[in-house]
Specification:
Chain lengths: ~300, ~450
């Protein structure tokens, strides 16, 4: 066997466990879920083929529409805020200074804690009248504000908690991207008289486009189906108050495990996946996959 | 091996995977042995280190049975949060791997009955045993006169109040509210910088509905009457309005501490609420975790012209008719909860008044517990003699009925919705469901 073939073989061997795992535990369930969507499943092992009935049901489902709206609002607020905050953090800790390791770790720290624990800690901070935040705000006459119990505030509170939770991770991604920006390009721009804003706008920003693209796509998917869209809501408000935080994944979960409508839940899942694929495709199209301009 | 999917850690991957991974997961958690000689018993008490004496009661009961019977019972502990809101039980039944014996709440009764998985316990139950249950309790777990579940306890709801909070506000026992209006007025006096005057459950879900029904019943309302929707009624509107008033008047919290309305230790016990609606289980909680806290219990306050009412919660043992040995499972349940001999009564007395604080569901057990002074404690006495007799068993509404009601409660309580419109909307949704519903009668 030639060296090249041996290396190729080794590569496939190393990839095999992961590929198999993904196939069995992600791809196969997805395909099966798509199949289940055409059945009425009663939760006791009985399947009845119903064609597109589960999809037709969606048209008259006001609560589905409401939960899609909740998720949409969450996405369009969370994604940009998380982007700006984590990018700013990355710029802040980009250059070496004393104790930088500590600072970077501190920003990343929330990410290593279980979201359930994160939720409980925030609940403690935010609880009506007695939470630390209420105490802080009391002198301003805002001691009575219930951040998780008021429909108009609850979703915004989740945005803040999830930005805080995820900013460290996205910061790391940006830092990795920033490391790839050649220092000489920046130096050359500086010698040519570019201000720090111009260096950022015309050198760093364009070169960071693939990273930015990755972050936006990743956090959009995360905001729709990720841990923060389910775990946090499940632990803290169960979709309340008054359905203000009933995200679409929570709604799917309810349909599957409260109402025993497994078929309908599977159909909903395929729709959410389709919407995500569409959104991602659109982003790919608009940014040409986050490629460099000259490519 | 125990393969649970803790709901709180459910990720996108597992959610998508859940639909297909069902057989895989439940295959690990399903009943072991296929010869009908060992039955699985899923519950949220034991064996578990956290559940202390309650776990021990389950373990002891099963040991006792296993000593004297060929067909053994094997306990499997599922943490309460997963049992109530998780996926373990549902996925197991979906894949035909459900437990032989399990615990069921009234809200799940019809779902499992209509799924044809509940075993008729009649053959295993003696007439004396049936007659020993308090009126209404077996009926709530029966269809067409056949009993499908035996209640293990009765858990009535009432209002707890903090004596300290009342004293601090310069109030006395004479000020304890008897009506809704008095409740709002007294709560206003009790509300301060760090404390709310009164507290009801605010988290949406099955439990919140359970705690709200008494206020509906007080005005003679009911969601369903003779198989038809009856929710759009003055009784529902006033009950929705009452809970709304507590929030609008800023005398009740929008978000509770700890585990919410059922958690008296974290709320009343911490001083965060001066009055709190909760169940009889809190007496045991307070004994264990806030021994020196001074509190009392009063019946739910009533609306003008209304009557006293409470909700009698209670879980039941049920057997899986598609399990390995449904007859033996039924026998186990009848023996564990329904035996009328001295040992059987003692077992029940232990569960209801020693390891937990419940109202015993059987007359003989109540008498035995009374003889041992179980209800001498002020709060328990009130529950047993004054509050429980005004109660109705927890309704067995399926999710399609309780969800619209839950939405109405949430919208009014926390989003200032118009109670009249909310009640009408909920009624319309329930009506749509009832038109196509074909299962056992909903009550």
């Amino acid at each position: 066997m030639s060296r090249k073939r041996r290396e190729a073989l080794a590569a496939y061997a190393f990839l095999a466990p992961d590929t198999l795992g993904l196939l069995i535990f992600v791809a196969l369930p997805m395909v099966l879920a798509f199949g289940v969507a055409f059945f009425k499943v009663d939760g006791f092992g009985n399947y009845q083929y119903v064609g597109l009935a589960n999809y037709k049901l969606m048209a008259g489902d006001d609560q589905l529409l409401a939960s899609l709206k909740v998720t949409a609002i969450y996405v369009v607020t969370f994604v940009p805020i998380a982007f700006v905050v984590s990018f700013a953090l990355a710029m802040l800790v980009r250059n070496h200074f004393k104790g930088i390791g500590w600072v970077r770790s501190a920003f990343f720290l929330p990410n290593v804690v279980s979201l359930v624990v994160v939720g409980l800690i925030w609940q403690f901070l935010l609880v009506d009248k007695r939470g630390a935040l209420s105490k802080l705000l009391a002198p301003l006459g805002l001691g009575d504000v219930s951040f998780l119990g008021t429909p108009s505030l609850a979703l915004g509170t989740y945005v803040v908690i999830s930005v805080w939770f995820l900013m460290g991770y996205q910061m790391l991604v940006f830092l990795a991207g920033l490391k790839d920006v050649p220092k000489d390009l920046e130096d050359a721009a500086e010698i040519d008289g570019a201000s720090s804003w111009q260096r950022f706008r015309f050198v760093i920003w364009p070169l960071l486009r693939p990273t930015s693209f990755f972050v936006v796509v990743n956090s959009t998917i995360g905001a729709v189906t990720g841990l923060q869209a389910f775990d946090l809501v499940f632990v803290l408000t169960k979709g309340g108050p008054a359905r203000a935080t009933s995200t679409v994944v929570l709604y799917i979960y309810e349909q599957a495990f409260t109402f025993n409508n497994m078929g309908y839940a599977a159909a909903l899942t395929t729709v959410v996946v389709a919407i995500l694929v569409l959104c991602t495709g659109l982003m790919f199209g608009v940014t040409r996959g986050g490629r460099f301009d000259e490519d | 091996m125990v393969a649970t999917l803790p709901p709180a850690r459910l990720s996108r991957r597992t959610l998508l995977g859940a639909f297909a991974a069902v057989p895989l997961l439940s295959a690990c958690g399903g009943s072991s042995g296929g010869d009908g000689k060992e039955m699985s018993f899923w519950n949220f008490y034991g064996p578990s280190d956290d559940q202390g004496p309650q776990s021990k009661w389950f373990v002891d009961v099963v040991d006792e049975w296993n000593k004297n019977n060929d067909v053994k019972v094997k306990l499997r502990y599922i943490p309460g949060k997963d049992y109530l809101n998780g996926t373990t039980l549902q996925t197991a039944f979906q894949s035909g791997q459900g437990p032989d014996i399990f615990l069921i709440s009234p809200g799940d009764f019809l779902r499992y009955y209509n799924g044809n998985v509940l075993q008729d316990l009649g053959a295993a139950l003696s007439p004396e045993s049936k007659a020993d249950y308090l009126p209404g309790l077996l009926e709530a777990r029966s269809v067409d006169g056949k009993v499908y579940g035996l209640p293990m306890e009765i858990e009535p709801l009432a209002m707890y109040y903090s004596e300290t909070a009342f004293e601090k506000a310069g109030l006395s026992e004479a000020d304890l509210p008897k009506t809704w209006d008095e409740t709002l007025a007294v709560a206003e006096k009790l509300t301060g910088k760090d404390r709310y005057g009164v507290m009801f459950e605010t988290l949406p879900g099955y439990y919140q509905n359970f705690t709200w029904y008494p206020f509906l019943w007080q005005g003679d309302g009911t969601p369903i009457k003779d198989g038809k929707v009856a929710f759009d009624s003055p009784a529902a509107v006033q009950a929705l309005k009452f809970w709304q008033d507590t929030i609008q008047n800023k005398v009740a919290p929008r978000k509770a501490l700890g585990d919410g309305g059922g958690d008296v230790v974290s709320n009343l016990g911490s001083g965060a609420a001066a009055m709190q609606q909760s169940g009889i289980w809190a007496v045991a909680d307070m004994r264990a975790k806030a021994k020196n806290f001074k509190y009392g219990v009063i019946p739910h306050p009533t609306p003008a012209g209304g009557k006293a009412a409470t909700d009698l919660g209670g879980w039941a043992f049920v057997a899986n008719s598609k399990g390995k040995n449904p007859e033996a499972a039924a026998k186990f349940i009848a023996w564990a909860l329904g035996s009328t001999d001295a040992a059987g009564i003692e077992r029940q007395r232990q569960w209801n008044t020693v390891v937990k604080t419940n109202v015993p569901p059987r007359k003989s057990v109540q008498a035995a517990a009374d003889a041992k002074g179980a209800f001498d404690d002020g709060a328990l006495k009130k529950f047993v003699s004054e509050i429980a007799p005004t109660g109705k068993p927890e309704p067995r509404f399926p999710p399609e009925v309780y969800q619209p009601i839950a939405d109405a409660i949430q919208a009014c309580q926390l989003n200032a919705a118009d109670p009249g419109k909310a009640a009408a909307d909920a009624a319309a949704r329930i009506d749509t469901f009832l038109k196509t519903y074909q299962g056992a009668p909903i009550s």
